Amino acid sequence: MIFVKEKKSRIAIVGANGFVGRNIRKFLSRNEISVASLTRTKYPHLKYETNIRYSDLDQKNLIAKLKNYDALIHLIGQGTQSADVTYEDVNVELTKKIVQLCKNAKIRKIIYISGFGVSKSTTFGYFISKFKAEQEIIRSGLDYTILRASYIIGNNDPLTKNLNKQIKSGSIIIPGSGSYRLQPISVNDVAKVILVSITNKQFLNKIVDLVGPQTITFENFIKKFIKKRAKIKKIDLEKAYHTALNQPRNAIYGLDDLNILVGDFTGNHKKLEQLCGFKLTPLKEIL
Ligand SMILES: NC(=O)c1ccc[n+]([C@@H]2O[C@H](COP(=O)([O-])OP(=O)(O)OC[C@H]3O[C@@H](n4cnc5c(N)ncnc54)[C@H](OP(=O)(O)O)[C@@H]3O)[C@@H](O)[C@H]2O)c1
User: Fold this and answer.
1) To bridge 90 with a disulfide, which of 34, 78, 120, 158 should be the other Cys (CB 3.0-4.6 Å)?
2) Nearest residue CA, atom 12 of ligand 1?
């Protein structure tokens, strides 16, 4: 698929070497779109891609390198925290630096992947940091699109990686009843939405839910995923939280993984389809 208008855009990506970043870069490269990818470590670059290595987003030389790019896709994020690296350090403070970088380099638009379920009234740490990052972007005066993503599924996504690791040990754990729901979306659809959101005025200064076309309970998701490769084992939810709190290194699901799962966040995918003008990939084609 070629997006003619977007082809002329010059796009920068931060967090370019993570799961979503790798997939978006491949998608943009296939569509012959020029991209500047900012990373902390070296990696093989793709066609139509310039790699910019950095150690700090404050670095002055980044401004000249990114001068007058049309848009920046902000994919830096941290899904677990410790005393050494907190959500505030990564999700909030680095967003402030990215906003400043956009302003200094005169990049007009920022696209940010937030979390589905994030709101002002949220009470848990990861979502609070995502909400605060959203606020930094909204208040910046830059053009923005904030995409609040449910589970993004694709090659080597964090949930699939976790489940495949569990399969190797012979069983997949379901914390509690497994009746809480999720709404996974294909990473290819996410890449398309991001690209459309860069030039489509309907995405201007909006928060959009990035949810897939099917709502499914976690238990049914696991049954579809597992394809009889391992057993399913349900454990008491209290036990799952106890391990996440007291032995975080051994926990299969971290504290905020559990919060997001049990949070049972679902939304309306039709709104997203209307906005972006294409049909989202059905779950059976994603798994
Ligand atoms: N995957 C999902 O299902 C999902 C769902 C909802 C929202 N999101 C959001 O979407 C964004 C991308 O997710 P992802 O799955 O691609 O995550 P990921 O694979 O963990 O990648 C995160 C990126 O953030 C960068 N990063 C982390 N800490 C950093 C730091 N201290 N300084 C600079 N860079 C740092 C990493 O850089 P390095 O490569 O250099 O380590 C990596 O490129 C994140 O904001 C995430 O919260 C993802």
Assistant:
1) 78
2) 75
